[in-house]
What does this fold into?
Amino acid sequence: MIALLKSINERRELLQLLVVRNLKIRYKNTSLGFFWSLLSPIFLIVIYSVFLGILKVPIPLPVLVTGIIVWQFLAMCLGDSLNSILGNANLVTKTAFPRIILPLSMVKANLINFMLSFVVLFVYLLATPSVEFGPLYMLPFVVLTQFALCLGVALLVSCSNVYFRDTEHILSMVMLAWFFMSPVIYPLELALSKAPEFLHKFLFCNPMFGIITSYRICLLSDANPGAAWIAISYVIAWSVLFIGIAVFQKLEPGFGDEL
Amino acid sequence: MGNENTIEVKGMGKKFRLRAGGTRTLKSSVLDALGIRSGKKEDFWALKDVNFSVGKGETLGIIGANGAGKSTLLSLLAGTKTATEGSIKTTGIISSLLELGAGFHPDLTGRENVFLCGALMGIPKAKMTAQYDAIVEFSGIGSFIDQPVKHYSSGMYVRLGFAVAVELDPDILLIDEVLAVGDSDFQRKCIAKMEEFREKGKTMLIISHDLKTIQSVSDQILLLDEGKVVGIGDPEELVERYESITRKKNAKSLQREWGTGEAKIAGVEFFDKDGNVTDKFMWGDPLDVRIDYESSKKLDNPVFGFAISDEEGHLIYGNNTQLEEFQVGSIDGKGSLKLRLNEIAMATGTYLFSFSIHSEDHKTNYHRVDNLFPIAVESTKEFEGCCHMPCKWGNIKT
It folds into this structure.
């Protein structure tokens, strides 16, 4: 583990360049460029507020938008992770460097994008009179945990896709199920009231359950369902990262042969 | 520092798993795990038991036929593939010309790609900035450097790739057949740059099918054949051995052997004018052949024949004991015959010998081996065609 951190630190310039490359390529050939990172969450909020008003869906807009923007960070990472090794086959087969830098740079680039969306979200919440902020000082820890989860899953998906091309199709199904299992488009209370009590702690075995709930506690002063439950989500999120690293390192030597 | 080895390879082997079905899918893995074979799996050793070392400042040429494992060896040294067994030790920054401009992203500009390549090789940004101007100058790309590389011509792409690889001042340079690309002007530049590298005391590994060039630039040559090291050492000697192996391989596809087997050609050896066994001959020299035969029963007056064909199997010349009115007599058990060609009259090239034993009336063919024995001829005599016929020119006075 220490050796891994050291090798990443040695190549931090490469990591940084790849993060920049990821961001640059995303908006290359677009006339608005980087503004899209700000524009898309703005449009997202506007569109949802219009249709929520028409459809009379029983969820407050700030709760919904928070859920969706947080979920998008994970969804983008997973979508990009399919190609973070395969799409860089030319680099992997021609040059030697710690391969973990590829998914890591991708997740970091998505983190930067998420941060920009987050700024938009924050401004929107500031401007919404009904919103009362909770313990904002907890946010960095929540973001860090989500980053760990995203990286962990991205590591698993990216190397699995090198060996099994079925990963892409499996992933899209898993993502859909995961989306509805997480309180993205419904508030926490709804999930807790519909599910029988003994199931509640299992709901928090889905790390996104605790993470989205934490964001809502910090940003919207949502009720805390219990620190112990949220802790389950956090432990699992960090475990996924360590499992991801272990699996990735085990499979990494074979990438050159497989690509 | 002087005798220090920059590259040390010990007992190294690389195994590939070949799958009949192509890419592994979830289905094939599940089936494999359950013991139901969805496709035949085969292990294939691309390299086996490879040992060699390269000293600092040495240039090692790697030669061998296609599929001998040359490129795999370079990928292993570059660290993009991992050896299955044994160890590889390298010291210093490695720059590989496995594929020029391999790391380039089409949407990024030349400048961005140069820095990305440097970072991929692990070169600090400060050093990159210092080298940047030299790279742009060597590549000759000029103002295009700030354009996305997808707008580059293929020549510009290759030039920039080469410039990055050599100007970053690596300790070890791996070159895989890149001299074949680019125009002659660029090739001259490459060779000059390689010369400069040698003078700076850098280590180079070169793969090339251009045997003349590789022989002249290498201090040592490593000859690979089907994943095994045939030899390492003196360039001239190993290039010669490689040519000899190639001759034997080419000849193999034309080989045929048939007959009743009552008598058999057990062995054939060629001797030069000094009586040494060889398969290389000079134009005008004599060629001696010793043919060992073996018969399972007594045969009266068998006829021994031979033929010479070119590399494509076209017959050039053939003759036998009957035509030459030589009586072999009766044969039983083991014995030997000798054959002498007084003067080798063929042009430079590879020639294949065939031998046969058949009955006196030509009705029974005991044994015939076609194109089994290749020889190389080097000719200093100039003429058209594949075979020289003694001739004389003169004026006629009227």
About this structure: Chain A has one domain: 33-253. The first helix of chain A runs from residue 2 to 10.
